[in-house]
Specification:
About 55% of the residues lie in helices and about 10% in strands. The protein is of the alpha+beta class. The strands form 3 sheets. The protein has an 8-stranded antiparallel sheet, sandwiched between helices. A 4-stranded mixed sheet has the order 3-2-1-4. A 4-stranded mixed sheet has the order 5-6-7-8. The longest helix has 29 residues, at about 50-80. Residues about 1-20, about 375-390 and about 940-955 have low confidence and may be disordered.
């Protein structure tokens, strides 16, 4: 039968062809169940209608269902056949519903001869109507009636529903006549879709067939275009709601992009338009190839396997493949670890490759539909056939006869264009980019079927590499064309190292996307900066971009900076080695190659320095400048760092990180350009004091002199002048008030809230401030601690912003200030505040061995302690408390959180203001801070700690 003949078919699809019969005799004894139910009825004085009999029926069914599902799960864990598992569960459900229905008619509401009006068909619809169920799926039932509902029908329906509910099933149900079904299906696309997939569970077959005949004739016929448009719009809305990418690292197996619902939508459209009952029929019609049929079957079976395991593992209808569950599902499906990749990462890579296949199948079907004019071509609205025909005419592309423009999309001129010249597999993307064209589905289909042509000879072809570099550095939308290249399979074949990271996830909470998706998004951010779209968000990068001389080297570095992820060695070093091998092939010269290799190897340098080091410490700047060496490399590294952080995921970038990067850049630039003149510490200190004095010119000389004497030299050498002025105004206003003062300030651009605290100094002050912030669920991004000569301390806390509105953020800041006051005045306890807050703990699936490193080379004045491990509520408070117990004076704290992992860096001295140089003391610090990571709330109970507590009037909290 031809495609057009099938598309015009009006006869109803036989129900027996819709759902394959599954033998479930090994899972449930249907005949034995009937006998046991009959025995209950015969032993009951009311013939099965009593409450006592109902209780026995319920108990029997509960045991039988539990046993049957247990056998299904056992078989599933052995054969790992997801679709078979779903079909077994659905067929078993049929058995129980049929037995309940028969028991009700024969024993509870006995009726030997049903009248015409008492006929009823119990029809499975929706997912159940497809003959598939997950363990936690809803049971969607349509009670189909010939006319209006009868008393007997109501009784049977009520008996059945209440039993199913008592058995723990979630049942969606409706009682409708055939007329009502037809009327509602015409008006409501959801109801139409549910009836499209229907299955007679039990009851009157002729009534069921009447519904099918009328549904095909009165609803389906002539409405394909309407149905397809509605389903595709529904799909787009669902994707937008749940995350418009198939590469989210915690995907929704049912509703997410590339998930089961997308496969369902694909088949709904095919079934509705082509009047087919199975994917196999689509292959017989030539709509999809045999290879694509295998892709469909493989994807459906895999996604059902994942979904069924999710439900079995959690005991509920869990659809999100969360971090907590991924390792267990990977284990259930039999994945093993490989060097550089955990078992869970291999499983998730397979998941994302399947999701990509689902997207490919959708595009293939849409191409076939468009060929038959089942839906308008993209960009065309309404029924303006004349305009459609004019725009659909083939137009030539200058410089090529192998491709033409078809409705603003690039299309092949013959099926042999890639076989005749394999370079066309790269050229097609270059032509689409330079002419701002989309891709015709037929072109993408032919590309996928020609991937074997991408071999070593093509990879070394100078023209192919030059064309690829043109696509990568396109002035308009390089990410769009690279994404199409990746989805078609070309990018991973042309650059095999990229192919290894396609669909690769990193099992952590920091990276929101797969590695290849992250790289493409990084390129998109830079392209948007180039086009001037992100001036407000990234003013410095936008200002520098026009001065970039090595534009193509930067694009290559953006593509390659994470290309070595998933290997046993450091991905930055391995990536630099790949860059040195690949760049000459792409046509980069020796200087550009070395520049790309440096950018890849040091692509984390600027973000780590800005976030984890004290950039007010002069040695930090000098060490960073030594690694960067030139202003051009500094410019490139800044832009790469911004793009990299922005592309990690929603909420990862904020203005505070931007401010840190800008400050690091501005501090480093003079050193690289020779603008920094070496002067003595005393000269720099004197100049800084004079600059502050000049800004405080409206103070009396006595006030000014007294204030300058409050601060130690390091304050003037490390604190920006504008901040010194703000501190001075705050401290001056507090002179006539009580000893403890706080002030809250917001900065919407930086995305931070700053809390300044002026209080009498004591060793645990920072710990208590951190405890107050933890009690409010606030994340500290940075902390500066300034001890003053009069025994007071000025602590400045920088918090990540939570609310969009300044008024809301100020209220949060004042609430935290209240917690600080309560803690320092002994009116509340740190332990109670932390235990009562709602901060989320990392999923139990994550385990990070804590690491503590004490370094005296990173600063000339301070010892730097870097701690790394699993984050938890109150961790910063515990760490700073332990440092106070260890007689360490914290001068600044730099807090970086990467998903479940925290990296905290503290610049400290001993109580005399000198570095920690004793080996035994260093070892004690490392040992105790490691212990604190693993034992929340613990602390050393030593005599010196207890005496210090008494001296400061502190109570243990």
């Amino acid at each position: 039968m031809s495609q057009q003949a099938v598309a015009n078919r009006t006869d109803p699809i036989p129900n027996e062809d819709i759902v394959p019969q599954i033998d479930v005799s090994g899972f449930v004894d249907a005949d034995g169940l009937t006998e046991r139910l009959t025995a209950i009825a015969e032993a009951d004085s009311a013939g099965g209608a009593s409450d006592e009999a109902r209780g026995k029926v319920l108990a029997l069914l509960r045991d039988e269902i539990r046993e049957a599902r247990s056998r299904v799960e056992e078989a599933f864990r052995e054969d790992r056949a997801g679709l078979d598992c779903a079909r077994r569960l659905a067929t078993i459900q049929d058995v129980f519903i049929e037995r309940i229905h028969d028991f009700a008619l024969r024993h509870v509401f006995p009726s030997s001869n049903l009248s015409a009006g008492e006929r009823m068909a119990i029809v499975a619809v929706g997912g159940y109507g497809r003959g598939t169920l997950a363990p936690g799926s809803d049971i969607d039932l349509l009670f189909l009636l010939p006319y209006k509902q009868t008393a007997l029908g109501e009784q049977v329906v009520e008996y059945l529903l209440y039993l199913l509910w008592d058995l723990g099933f979630k049942v969606g149900h409706a009682s409708r006549t055939v007329d009502e079904c037809i009327r509602l299906a015409r008006a409501d696309m959801t109801i139409r879709t549910s009836i499209l997939e229907r299955w007679l569970v039990v009851g009157d077959r002729s009534l069921f067939q009447e519904l099918g005949t009328r549904f095909e004739r009165e609803v389906v016929e002539g409405t394909s275009e309407e149905f397809i448009a509605a389903k595709l719009a529904e799909r787009s809305a669902r994707h937008a709601k749940i995350g418009n990418t198939r590469y989210l690292v915690e995907p929704n197996v049912k509703e997410g992009k590339g998930g089961l619902r997308d496969l369902n939508t694909l088949f709904w459209i095919a079934k509705y338009h082509y009047r087919v009952t199975s994917p196999e029929a689509l292959a017989e019609l030539g709509v999809i190839s045999r290879r694509e049929l295998k892709l469909f079957q493989k994807a459906e079976d895999f996604l059902w396997a994942v979904r069924c395991h999710l439900h079995f593992a959690t005991g509920k209808a869990e659809e999100r493949l969360s971090f907590d569950l991924q390792p267990e599902i990977a284990e259930r499906l039999g994945y093993n670890a490989h060097p550089g990749l955990k078992d869970v990462e291999r499983f998730m890579k397979h998941y994302f490759l399947i999701a990509k296949d689902v997207g490919d199948l959708t595009r293939i079907l849409c191409a076939a539909l468009e060929e038959q004019h089942a839906k308008p071509a993209p960009g065309i609205a309404g029924i303006r056939n004349l305009v459609r025909n004019l725009r659909s005419r083939a137009k030539k592309i200058p410089g090529t006869v192998d491709f033409h423009i078809d409705n603003n999309r690039i299309n092949v001129s013959s099926p042999s264009v890639f076989k005749d010249d394999p370079v066309n597999l790269i050229r097609v993307f270059r032509l689409a980019a330079s002419n701002k064209l989309e891709y015709h589905p037929d072109t993408l289909k032919l590309i996928r079927r020609s991937l074997r042509l991408i071999n070593a000879e093509l990879r070394e072809n100078p023209e192919a590499n030059s064309l690829f570099l043109d696509v990568l550095t396109d002035r308009n939308h390089p990410e769009f064309h690279l994404r199409r290249m990746n989805e078609a399979g070309v990018l991973g074949r042309f650059i095999p190292e990229f192919g290894k990271i396609v669909a690769m996830m990193q099992f952590n909470m920091y990276h929101h996307y797969t590695v290849d998706e992250h790289l493409l998004r990084t390129i998109n951010v830079f392209s948007r900066i180039e086009r001037g779209e992100l001036v407000d968000a990234h003013p410095m990068s936008s200002d520098l971009v026009d001065s970039i001389k090595d534009r193509r080297a930067l694009y290559v570095a953006l593509l390659l900076h994470d290309i070595a992820k998933g290997r046993p060695e450091d991905h930055s070093i391995a990536g630099a080695r790949i860059a040195r091998r690949l760049c000459p092939r792409l046509g980069l010269n020796e200087r550009e190659t070395e520049l790309v290799a440096w950018l890849v190897e040091d692509h984390l340098l600027m973000s780590m320095t800005a976030q984890q080091r004290d950039i007010n410490d002069r040695k930090t700047i000098l060490d960073f400048a030594e690694r960067v060496r030139t202003l051009e490399r500094l410019n490139l590294l800044l832009i790469l760092t911004v793009c990299d952080i922005r592309a990690v995921g929603p909420g990862v970038w904020n203005g505070w990180k931007g401010q840190l990067l800008r400050t690091l850049y501005l501090e480093t630039e003079p050193t690289l350009t020779g603008g920094f003149t070496r002067s003595t510490r005393a000269e720099r200190l004197g100049a800084s004091r004079e600059r502050l004095a000049a800004r405080l010119a409206d103070w009396s000389e006595a006030e000014r002199s007294a204030y300058l004497d409050l601060h130690y030299p390091n304050y003037f050498l490390t604190t920006p002048l504008d901040e010194q002025v703000r501190h001075a105004v705050f401290i001056r206003a507090a002179e006539t008030k009580e000893p403890l003062q706080t002030q809250v300030r917001t900065d919407a651009f930086q995305g931070i809230t700053e809390i300044m605290v002026l209080a009498p100094d004591h060793p645990r002050l920072l710990s208590m401030l951190a405890g107050a912030c933890a009690g409010a669920g606030a994340n500290i991004a940075d902390a500066q601690v300034f001890t003053m000569s009069d025994g007071r301390a000025l602590d400045v806390l920088v918090l990540n912003r939570e609310f969009a509105e300044d008024a809301d953020e100020l209220r949060r800041g004042e609430r935290i200030s209240g917690y600080i006051r309560a803690l320092l005045q002994g009116k509340d306890s740190r332990k109670r505040l932390i235990s009562g807050q709602k901060a989320k703990r990392p999923p139990s699936a994550f385990s990070i061995h804590p690491s503590v490193r004490v370094d005296n080379d990173l600063s000339n004045q301070f010892t730097v302690i870097e701690v790394e491990g699993l984050d938890r509520p109150g961790l910063l408070s515990d760490l700073t408390r332990a440092m106070a117990d260890l007689n360490l004076d914290i001068r600044s704290a730099h807090i970086s959180t990467y998903g479940e992992k925290v990296v905290d860096v503290f610049y400290v001295t001993d109580l005399l203001g000198t570095k920690i140089t004793s080996q035994s003391r260093t070892e004690r610090i490392e040992t105790w801070l490691t212990h604190v990571f693993e034992n929340p709330g613990s602390e050393p109970m030593t005599a010196d700690v207890l005496s210090a507590e008494k001296a400061y009037g502190l109570t243990r909290q």
